[in-house]
Amino acid sequence: MSEQLTVLGTGGTISTLPGADGAIPRMTADELASSLGVDRIRSKDVFTRSSREIGPAEAWILASAIEDEIRGGATGVIVTHGTDTIEETAYALALLVDARIPIVLTGAMRSPHMPGADGSANLRAAACTASCAEVADYGPVVVLHDEIHLASLVTKTHGVSVAAFTSPAAGPVGRIVENEPLLLLGPPRRKALLSRRGG
Ligand code: ASP
After folding, report:
1. N or C: where does the chain have the smaller number of CB atoms within 10 Å of the terminal CB?
2. Cα(119) to centroid of ligand 1, in Å?
């Protein structure tokens, strides 16, 4: 099966551009996807906002957008997201989406115009993680700072560091080494999905 990645944009620091009132989420999923230079990649803006404005209702919409991509033949989905609530969205997706393909959430601690901006490296790490079929067995994962974290364990433990994300109970399940995901721990037992009747 040939690879078909999709970038779903939701906003956050990874998509900011400087404006009169500071950095605001303005880059499209298409701009983010194009920066990867990958041949077969689709993109869609689901939201363009700070992740403080993303809660359960938005996670539900995002879950449907991911399922549309799966039905459309995606082999991996990358979700770009603000870091303030990325762990909540990842956990919600783990309970809502029957992931048969890698679903990888990523973001950035620094805006693209700041020195040492981490967004493009995180996006690239997310893309190579989404290209690894084995990652599907882990459910949705969060990739930042070259680490792969389980949705059920990851948490933001620092306000500004590019190494803000950790999984205190067990550590990351994998790392990105020279553009390849290295899975260090086996996949977790899958949890039952929440019923989405009525959605
Ligand atoms: N306030 C931003 C957000 O969560 C912070 C970030 O993306 O890092 O959307």
Report:
1. N
2. 12
d(CA 16, CA 18): 7
pTM score, two decimals? Answer: 0.96
Using DSSP, state whether 41 is helix, strand or coil.
Answer: strand
Q: pLDDT tens for residues 137-166?
A: 999 999 999 999 999 999 999 999 999 999
Domains in the chain (CATH in brackets) are 5-183 (3.40.50.1170)
CA of 189 to the centre of ligand 1 (A): 30
Give the residue from 4, 2, 5, 14 showing the smallest Cα distance to 108.
Answer: 14
Take residue 10 and report the two structure tokens written for it: 């939701």
Work out which ligand 1 atom sits closest to the CA atom of 16: 7
Which atom of ligand 1 has the smallest separation from the CA of 51?
Answer: 9
Active site residues: 13
